[in-house]
Specification:
By secondary structure, this protein is α+β, with helices and mostly antiparallel strands. It is built from seven helices and 31 strands. The strands form nine sheets. It has a six-stranded mixed beta sheet with strand order 22-31-30-29-25-28. Strands 1-8-6-3 form a four-stranded antiparallel beta sheet, with no helix packed on it. Helix 5 crosses helix 6 and helix 5 packs across helix 7. The longest helix has 16 residues. The radius of gyration is 30 Å and the shape is elongated. The N and C termini lie far apart (79 Å).
């Protein structure tokens, strides 16, 4: 059977590899251990050895060319073997004519040996989709989504799926959403396991009649051990792990250590194991089909063949803008790791983009909150009414934005968009990081509506119950750490907004009033602005208006 060789990850920062030199050409015989090619990474040029015996049937990247890590680099198999299903739609002009039987050749076309369905040689299109088979791709569930993570599969390969069934829970950069099947049939293939991500519009699953061969539709033939078509899954591969709890995402296939079987291990992992003196036969690989990869070597603990992971305890997040409380048991002398969630990865990416692309500057103002405190007491004395200071700040902010539309704007490369609606994003902490649900048309909402909206969205954020559209369309953001006693802080702008307001704690302190030193209550607000859109004077005028609304609450009625 032909083996797909993918571009290896030869360094921890490598994303693409360049083929500096091929030591073999299509048609050559290759032995295990032969240097197949020289791969240039971002750090060095390294020899890449073959792990298989056979003939070199296909080259995916020519000398001097580059390709992403894990993309098809080459295919090794038996001479004359059909590999059309393994190339994932690559052009066939790199395959020697001798590799294709004469009866399957036609002028300008290469015929698929198994299905005898013609595939255009020039076009490089993927194999045709069989009748009654539906390819499900990773959906785009938000306007900023580039990839999605499967938080949970509700079906496994071989199960019967009906139209409308929740196929999986997809974690985007903003929320976890149920993803329903639009077709009925048997789940024949899944491209990623639980907790794994794939780009938008790539193959997520395949549904069709039971027993359908879909190998030609799976890119590069690199299927997960538990994601092969049901018809091809041997019964002897079913292990007791299938009866484990639902929290375990997939079977753990032990790596064979028989002297008659080849050990599946990446070149980098093999070298690292040799350097560290690790017996790789004692490891269980976490890669595809149980392949030992770099992280298995990095996580190896000699004290036990299979170490027990450090338990992660997560406490409930605070309602508004509280930092995520993620506690990890401390073990003296031992490091531990917490895999990044999709939300955490997106937070890191977006905040870095914002900080390094938008020229931030900060304005800080101190506000006397005495009258706001009195107003809140009176409002909360009304039946069925209970508002927070944060609700009052959101309302005052929305009204101030109405008077200063430049702050309620977005930068584009060739223009500035002045938004017609005032949609305030409210930063809410969750264990995975931070989400920003949006109060649409906040300037038109009363205190009770704002309070109810914030409580509802903050509560659903904790259970990942927010919909993507509830976290889209903000034109300005508010972040509040006052409940933790933080008096002053600055925030990174939540793009595409042009400003974000940071709210500190209300502090009782001596103040000067009418020439006398008295005890008063003050609060500091910090406004981070994108200087491309909001000039210093504009930001200062916005804060002046906001100060008036909070120091004189009745002015909101004018």
């Amino acid at each position: 059977m032909a083996e797909v060789i993918t571009m290896p990850r030869l360094s921890d920062t490598m994303t693409d590899g360049k083929v500096a030199k091929w030591h073999k050409k299509v048609g050559d015989t290759v032995k295990e251990g032969d240097i197949l090619a020289e791969i240039e990474t971002d750090k060095a040029v390294q020899d890449f050895e073959s792990e298989f015996n056979g003939a070199l049937l296909y080259i995916g990247t020519e000398e001097g060319g580059s390709s992403p890590v894990d993309s098809v680099l080459a295919i090794i198999g038996q001479e004359g073997e059909d590999i059309s299903a393994l190339k994932g739609g690559y052009s066939t002009d790199k395959i020697a004519d001798a590799d294709i039987p004469e009866e399957n050749k036609t002028e300008g076309k290469v015929t698929d040996i198994e299905t005898t369905e013609p595939v255009e040689k020039e076009s490089g299109e993927n194999a045709e989709i069989p009748a009654d088979v539906e390819v499900i791709t990773m959906p785009r569930l938000s306007d900023t989504m580039t990839e999605g993570k499967v938080a949970k599969w509700h079906f496994k390969v071989g199960d019967t799926v009906k139209e409308g069934d929740v196929l999986a829970e997809i974690e985007t950069d903003k929320a976890v959403q149920d993803f329903e099947s639009e077709v009925s049939g048997t789940l024949l293939y899944t491209s990623v396991g639980e907790g794994e991500a794939s780009p938008v519009d790539t193959v997520l699953a395949i549904i069709g009649p039971a027993g359908t061969d879909v190998s030609g539709l799976t890119s590069g033939g690199a299927q997960k051990a538990d994601s092969k078509p049901a018809a091809e899954k041997p019964s002897e591969n079913v292990t007791a792990s299938e009866n484990t709890s639902a929290s375990e995402n997939k079977e753990e296939q032990p790596v064979a250590n028989s002297s008659t079987e080849r050990l599946a291990i990446s070149p980098l992992a093999k070298k690292m194991a040799e350097d560290k003196g690790i017996d790789v036969h004692s490891l269980k690989g976490s890669g595809e089909n149980g392949r030992i990869v770099k992280k298995d070597i990095e996580n190896y603990q000699p004290s036990a063949a299979s170490s027990t992971p450090v338990k992660q305890e997560v406490s409930a997040p605070a309602a508004v803008s509280a930092p995520a409380q993620v506690a990890v048991n401390f073990v003296q002398g031992e490091d531990s790791e917490t895999p990044n969630s999709q939300v955490r990865n997106i937070i890191a990416k977006r905040l870095a983009e914002s900080k390094f692309t938008a020229p931030h500057y900060y304005l800080i103002v101190e506000i006397n909150m005495d009258k706001a405190i009195e107003a809140r007491k009176e409002i909360n004395s009304l039946p069925d009414t209970k508002i927070s200071f944060n609700d009052m700040i959101i309302k005052a902010t929305a009204m101030a934005l109405r008077k200063h539309p430049q702050v309620n704007s977005t930068w584009k490369e060739d223009k500035i968009i002045h938004h017609g609606n005032i949609n305030v994003g409210v930063a809410v902490a969750i264990p995975d990081g931070l989400v920003v649900p949006v109060l649409k048309n906040a300037d038109q909402m009363n205190y009770n509506q704002i309070s109810a909206g914030v409580k509802d969205m903050a509560g659903r954020a904790k259970s990942k119950g927010l919909k993507a559209n509830e976290m889209e369309g903000s034109t300005f953001s508010v972040s509040n750490l006052g409940m933790f006693g933080i008096e002053t802080f600055t925030s990174i702008i939540n793009q595409p907004n042009s400003a974000i307001l940071s709210v500190g704690a209300i502090v009782e302190k001596p103040i000067v009033k009418d020439g006398q030193i008295v005890v008063g209550n003050t609060m500091k607000l910090s406004l981070a602005c994108d200087h491309r859109v909001v000039d210093g004077a504009t930001g200062a005028q916005f804060l002046q208006t906001l100060r008036t609304y909070l120091e004189q609450p009745l002015s909101l009625l004018l």
